Amino acid sequence: MARKTGNISILQFDEHLIAWLRVKPSPKGLEILSWETKFGAWSAQDGSLELAVEEFVKTRSIAADRVHTVMPRHDMTARILLLPSHDEQELDGMVRLGVEDYVPYPEHELVMDQCLLQRLPDGQSRVLAVFAHRDVVESHVAVLRAAGVEPEQISVSTACIATSAILAHGKEGEKFALANLASGGVEVLVFNGNRLEYGRAVATQQDWSAATAVGSEAVEELASEVRATVSAHRRDSEDGIGAERIYLASEWVNTAQIASALSDTLGYECQPAQFARSLCTQGAEHLSTLPLASLGAALAAQNRAPISISLVPASLEQARRRSETRRRFAKVGGFVLAILLALLALYGQAAFQRSRYIAELQNRVAEIEPTALSVEAKRRQLIRLQQHLDRRGSALELLAKISELTPASGLNITRYSFSHGEEITLAGRSETLTLVYALADALREAGREDIPQFARAGLGPYREDQEQGQSVIQYEINIPFATAETEGEPEADSE
Question: pTM higher than 0.70 for the full model?
């Protein structure tokens, strides 16, 4: 389907919730156009989930946008790994080589990606690696395709939530935990300032809207997961210091009352992740909840995410390339065909006009050729006659001018070579090199005034000899002509 808008739609769905965020691309922040959730009880097995997503997409014209989707971490495996390299290609190879150490599946059954979190001074790197079974990802894509949507990107909730938290709240030195209450699971991430340090997620069927009272089952389960995550992070951290504060976010429920109940249960300071609204330059009033995963995916869609994970399967990449190739071939084929038809028409017309014009020119050439040959013969005769009558620039005239410019004493000319239309060469002896330079300068000065042939006079090779105990300069001055003087036969050299 051809795109009609430049808007970005972030679509999340499972058997209980469809969440949709539409934003307008902006270099300053997120311009929220709409935020909507729809609750239900659907099933992927009987096709009701597919129908619900299709109806949701069509009634809101989502397929006309650039569509990105987010998959929950509790449907896959994610690890923060410490690997001995800073090179991203090497890190990718290490993750793929050790894939069976992290998940019980071979590499060909997985869709995986990784993101460099931190380069450590000792040459190691902290890497977020995500492993999803291919069937899970392709089932997700199949629901979107049935709704007429080809997702540009498939992100993971961990990367999206971390992106939102880092850009909106990451403060150097502050440790905090962020619990995201998703439909079908809960994910808890721990941050040290603007660095993701730990995270875990579990699937659950809890109705988070019921987690509003201390002692309720939902609050107890949430408290247990948060407590376990914070404790595990404290054990793994170098300083042994855990999170100082707990923030709550969710796509489908308001977290204010949940935060209060969780705070009483855990004894930690707990509050909604209201800082997420600072990511929005416009339209924050549309957000009835705190959808950090959707906001992070919108930032990733604009290439502004510090943590980015892509789970686009090979089948979707191949289908996308085939579709793009067909579209390009069709467009290029139509364009080329139109050009060929236009060129053929132009060529036919041009060929007809050219043949007529050539025939006309040939007739005119045949008519004027005798006259043109006669004129050319007379022109050559006139040139030769002019050369005999006009002796300006002749060898003798130029020699006379050279004699006038030659110093009265201390320098003589022993050879004068004149090549008509090409150059003059002077050779001789001088008491000093200064006199030779003076003669060359005088020739160039005359060239600027009234003898243009001398304009390029310059000193050629010279040497110093001893004659009768006195130093003598054997010199040569070359005077190349700028252009040929006249047409016709060249005169013989004179010396």
Answer: no
